[in-house]
Amino acid sequence: MQPQVQHSDDVRAERAVVIQLLRDDHDQQWTLGELREALSDVDPPAIAGALGGLEAEGVVYHSARYFWATVPIRHLDALGLIAV
């Protein structure tokens, strides 16, 4: 399977979402509204697209109301392997 080529705005939105989901000054679970507020400089459709792509790749979990980073992503962050 070949990796998908992403547009730079898509990558920027995904990075922004992951950074928010890994913040240590917020609960691990975020509502879409909270993400939109925190990422006010990112277009809402880009946030929704980023969440969908990240969920498809196993980076983000989603329930009816919340989004959060998966356990492996949190572990990589704790190991210091996710750098911003």
Can you describe this structure?
The chain has helices at 8-21, 32-38, 44-56, 71-78; strands at 30-31, 60-62, 66-69. Helix 1 (8-21) crosses helix 3. Strand 2 (60-62) and strand 3 (66-69) form a beta hairpin. The protein is mainly alpha-helical.
Summarize the model shown.
The protein is mainly α.
Question: Helical residue percent?
Answer: 40-55%
How large is the count of helical segments? 4
| Assigned CATH superfamily | Winged helix-like DNA-binding domain superfamily/Winged helix DNA-binding domain
Could you tell me the radius of gyration in angstroms? 12 Å
Outline the biggest β-sheet: 3 strands, antiparallel
CATH third-tier fold name: Arc Repressor Mutant, subunit A
- The geometry reads as globular
Helix and strand succession? HEHHEEH
Strand content: 5-15%
Neighbour order of strands in the largest sheet? 1-3-2
Overall average residue pLDDT: 92
Straight-line distance between termini:
28 Å
